[in-house]
């Protein structure tokens, strides 16, 4: 059969786009711009000198990395950065361990008072952080934890949200896996560690990322619980540029840019898990 | 290897009893299949033997040891689950080796055992694959490999073939049976599929509502069911049961209250046969015809009751026609009309 070369009119790409889509994209574009503009200005300001900061051009006239050099080499910025990293990593590791351990217990064991414990844990989600700060502070003061790493970390070492998230995920692990491992002679802790944990990797990753980012950007409690500059976390330390050195915007923006870059790197490395974790949490939570 | 013994075994969830004091001895090396409808207690019984369910009353013995309070891992039993329960984050080799996780064998000995189990089950080329890259049948073989690598005293199978398609199920039935022939390990196997029970078991245990109705070799259960439920549950198509009366040794359909229930298997109820002195004769209007090749199943109705009979492959039976089907003497099972217990044959 001969192939005919009949020209089929191809519709213009835009002809197929519905007007509703254009409106949607416009709204999304405006929303996107509103969100990204402060970040762009943060990076822009970090590349400006003190005299240029009120020049609102997005691309600085004479961009300089001097602020980065100064922030990273002078003062205690690097210490604050490491403090933040230390606190965030410790709290994340603690959450991954304890939240999943409690979540697994609540999901896979039947014992008297199980629902009561679960509801008690869940009910703490309804208490705003502001209400907890005073008890935390009094507790820290009584135990002598104020102005210490432990003092910064202890309120977040285990969270109701993490426990809830992990319980929901462990419930999706078929009991047959657990029982097969029991038949194979494993003890309960090894079953949790060797069998159940690898099966909820997406949830663990999501929990780790949320916890890390939450603690990396935490400001309120670290500000209250620390007084020594050596113990400041990055967000708290950044405020000292404003208080003691008459608001050095270019320095604040440089510090914030470095903190944001870290966050972005974590996100880029693990975004696959973040998206999956959020989706699964939405579906199964 | 060891025998299993259940003595007056009871299981209750709160006040609800689901197993009502059953007694059973499974001799060393026997392949016993628990069969029954959903909720009859067969899986619960198996899980109690495994130690995954607490025993409410009675006693379970494995060998000469009472194991009621013994942890699953201490019973030295291996279990194969309906959903395979092979760990998706491990390769086939790791999955099989996991059965030896607590074993005191050297690494080399473990490796040899895994390789041997892999070879026995035809898994050698698949040892480095993950379960996601395996078919259903291969996954089930991995689960069996993990179970057998431990040299357990007995195997427990909980509906292991339910998730497989018909063709694979038939193949796995033969493989499991062959495995039992080679290993001669005691096997307790749970299924709701009576074909599996008939083809694999040394002995079938028919359960209903937490009771054992009959425990006997497959053909004994088929030939001599103890009650109407067992008669209808074992055999495909199910046995026809009709209200009947027996006068001077002759069985006829009952007009009013039946004195007995007459049961005849479709393969014994023959359309167009020349049986001179039939044990039962039924006449009705054909509602469906199912040609199966070597034979044809004929569905017909008598007084609103559906009956299945067998006709020759090219018998020319048509829907709407009247047929007469006869069962030979000695092939009509009689059951008490009230208790539904077997009374013998006519």
Structural description of this entry:
- The complex is a heterodimer of chains A (285) and B (346).
- Chain A has 13 helices and no strands.
- Chain A has 285 residues and is an all-alpha fold.
- Chain A folds into two domains: 17-64, no CATH class; 71-284, MetI-like (MetI-like fold), CATH 1.10.3720.10.
- The termini of chain A are far apart.
- Mean pLDDT of chain A is 86; it is low at 281-285.
- Chain B is α+β, with helices and mostly antiparallel strands and 346 residues long.
- Chain B has two domains: 4-232, 3-Layer(aba) Sandwich (Rossmann fold), CATH 3.40.50; 259-345, OB fold (Dihydrolipoamide Acetyltransferase, E2P) (Beta Barrel), CATH 2.40.50.
- In chain B, the strands form four sheets. Chain B has a six-stranded mixed sheet with strand order 6-7-8-3-9-10, with helices on both faces. Chain B has a five-stranded antiparallel sheet with strand order 12-11-13-19-20.
- In chain B, strand 15 (280-291) and strand 16 (296-302) form a beta hairpin.
- In chain B, helix 2 runs parallel beside helix 4 (136-148).
- The longest helix of chain B has 18 residues, at 166-183.
- The radius of gyration of chain B is 24 Å and the shape is globular.
- The two termini of chain B are 43 Å apart.
- Classes of the chains: A mainly alpha (285), B alpha+beta (346).
- The interface between A and B is medium-sized, with 15 and 22 residues.
Strand content of chain A: under 5%
Q: Which architecture of the largest domain in chain B per CATH?
A: 3-Layer(aba) Sandwich
The CATH architecture of the largest domain in chain A: Orthogonal Bundle
Radius of gyration of chain A: 25 Å
What is the CATH superfamily of the largest domain in chain A? MetI-like
Oligomer: heterodimer
Number of helical regions of chain A: 13
What's the mean pLDDT score of chain A?
A: 86
Large-scale geometry of chain A = globular
Number of domains of chain B: 2
Find the count of extended strands of chain B (DSSP E, 2+ residues): 20
Taken as a percent bin, the fraction of beta residues of chain B is 25-35%
- How many separate domains make up the residues of chain A? 2
Radius of gyration of chain B, in angstroms, nearest whole number: 24 Å
Mean pLDDT of chain B: 91
- General form of chain B: globular
